[in-house]
Amino acid sequence: MSSHPRRAPDVLIVGGGPAGLSAAVLLGLRGVDVLLVERHPAASTLPRAHLLNQRTMEIFTEMGVADIVYDLSPPEDRWHKVAWHTTLAGTSAPFGQVLGTLPAWGGGPDAERYARASPCLYANVPQLRLDPVLRARAEAVCGPENILFHHELTALSPSGEDYGEGTVATVRDRGSGRFHEVHTRYVIAADGGRTCADLLGIEMDGPTGLLDMVTVHAGIDLSERISDDEVLLRYFINPDGRGSFAGVLCAMGPGRWGRNSVEWAVHTAFRTDDPARHDRAVVLDRCRRMLGIPDLEVEVHAVSHWEFEGVVARRQRLGPVFLTGNAAHRHPPTGGLGLNTAVQDVHNLAWKLDAVLTGQASDALLDSYGTERRPVGEFNVQHCLTNAGGHARIAAALGLRADQSEKEGWEAITEWLADTPEGETKRVAVAEAIASNADDFSQLAVELGYHYESGALVPDGTPAPEGNNPLRDYVPTTRPGHHLPHVWLNRGGSRESVHQLIAPRGLTLLVDAEHASQWAAAVQAAGGTGATVHVRVIGSGAEWTDPTGDWAVVRGVDSGGALLVRPDRHIAWRVPDWSDDRPAELRQSVCLVLSLQPSHTQPLPMTSPAT
Ligand SMILES: Cc1cc2nc3c(=O)[nH]c(=O)nc-3n(C[C@H](O)[C@H](O)[C@H](O)COP(=O)(O)OP(=O)(O)OC[C@H]3O[C@@H](n4cnc5c(N)ncnc54)[C@H](O)[C@@H]3O)c2cc1C
User: Fold this and answer.
1) CA-154 nearest atom, ligand 1
2) Residue 250: which residues within 8 A CB-CB, separation 6 or more?
3) Which atom of ligand 1 is nearest to the CA of 37?
4) Which helix H or strand E contains 556, and what residues bound it?
5) Does this UniProt record's set of keywords contain Flavoprotein (predicted)?
6) Coil, helix or strand for 552?
């Protein structure tokens, strides 16, 4: 066994899943020297995540992979619904019944409000097809020699707060068996929770081992068994679910979707102490039972197990190490937020690491990563756990209980079909229970409205706006900590989202054409921090104009005001109007946001001066 120094990247990324690969791309595009190590020889072949929400697609656009992802996604009319069934097929009622459906992920009546809220549409690509796209992009941006699959992190030293100028990681080349030392300033733990938190002794809080979910990824011909094409996910509520859902069927394409999908993921729920869950014949029998097709031909590609849990790390930074994605929080998939939150974690972290490594910010800026992201992870985990309960509400409305026999369960479902007052009451209750699941499938406020109350920002004392339904109704706002709302602007005859005005490095000051020269002078006068502030002007005679007036409505400040926006497009600071104090306030805010000590030695670099 040999151990010798291999190289010294600025950032070592542990894990080649969505979090790690996205981190590599986002840092690589900024010119940061990264090394990524992934334990497995190739990207995961398990179906796992597939729902990619609009914030994630905005980030994928920045990463240069959005077009490929949309190409892999189903046509819009082939996936924007979710359904609940008793079983998929069956010779007689109550088998083969559709209990109800809901529009999902920006489909049907939600289409317009989702489209208005972001320049990007939702996408749906199984992770086994997404991860290779991310890997190829990471290799193109960072160089294949810096994206090392079949290499694993085995130790971190020192692993505490006192890390001085960096840390030393031990990486094993699993092909040769040789160990290498990697000296690095920072480590992004994107290991899915399999390594770094344990090495660092960071504990996770929350329920674990709720269920053992078994996923069969298989080629199945269901074209004669399904009569609609719009449903992507089908939940099965029957006595096997013991008071909740018995399992889920998810179309996986590729190329053909709806009833003609070639591949499917069939998820069934087992108790964690049920030894039968490791018996493939039992698992396949459970799948066939759930679908109500005893003789179904199944061409199995893979069988995998995953734990139904909802846990959050007590901290997301320890010295030079940052926990991201599943290493920091693990969600049940009900809500489709695991991968999305993972990508959004590293988007928050990448610009901060770049700013610190290029001397635009101090190391203290990196503390804001956990301050900002941990509450989001915690909220999303709780929300996904709550979503899981939505299916139990449907089961309860049907009269299904964990302690009843199978026969009693089917009798309870039969009553739902009965032409009696009791049957009618049950149908109303089931319909209401299904409708309440819109908190999961129309959760636009969760997906786009996440924001930070403290961190790398200057609060302005205003309360966070909230819609009637705080999970579904996204309220665009420029309140500090929130994401810059999307509005289409005009640039030389073409439409461009206001998001595109935000520079990937430095801070961006959005101002109105009426007061552009004052703000440009303010940036100049407020100099001395060493940080770059880009001025972007919107309005009459400027490069970007607001022909619809939408920007004037949503910007939340008057024509003399300004918004200071971070590279991750979250608002850092805003002022409602112009005053002579603004240059000093701007300077102080830049220092606060980037954790810099004010000094008066040099002017702020300024780009794109006001027109
Ligand atoms: C059935 C199912 C459906 C889901 N659906 C959705 C969905 O629709 N939307 C959504 O957002 N999320 C969904 N998720 C969750 C999503 O899959 C995860 O949240 C996501 O994969 C997390 O990405 P990650 O990069 O943090 O971790 P992972 O994808 O787990 O990647 C971690 C990587 O680190 C590697 N690794 C671990 N230890 C080491 C080491 N010591 N050295 C080197 N490499 C190491 C592992 O091999 C692995 O490749 C779903 C999950 C499941 C199971």
Assistant:
1) 41
2) 47, 50, 232, 233, 234, 264, 265, 266, 267
3) 43
4) none
5) yes
6) helix
Residues 279-302 pLDDT 10s: 999 999 999 999 999 999 999 999
Map residue 375 onto helix, strand or coil: helix
Length of the chain: 611
Give one DSSP letter per residue of 294-347, joined into a string: TT---EEEEEEEEEE--EEES-SEETTEEE-GGGTEE--STTS-HHHHHHHHHH
* CATH classification (class only), 488-607: alpha beta
Measured distance CA(86)–CA(399) in Å, rounded: 13
Residue that the structure tokens 């026999």 belong to: 405
Which DSSP category does 468 fall into? S
* Spans of all domains in the chain: 3-76+122-206+311-382, 488-607
Which residues sit with their C-beta closer than 6 Å to ligand 1?
14-20, 37-40, 44, 48-51, 127, 152-153, 190-192, 194-195, 215, 267, 306, 325-326, 333, 336-340, 342
CATH of domain 3-76+122-206+311-382: 3.50.50.60
Q: Is the ipTM of this complex over 0.95?
A: yes
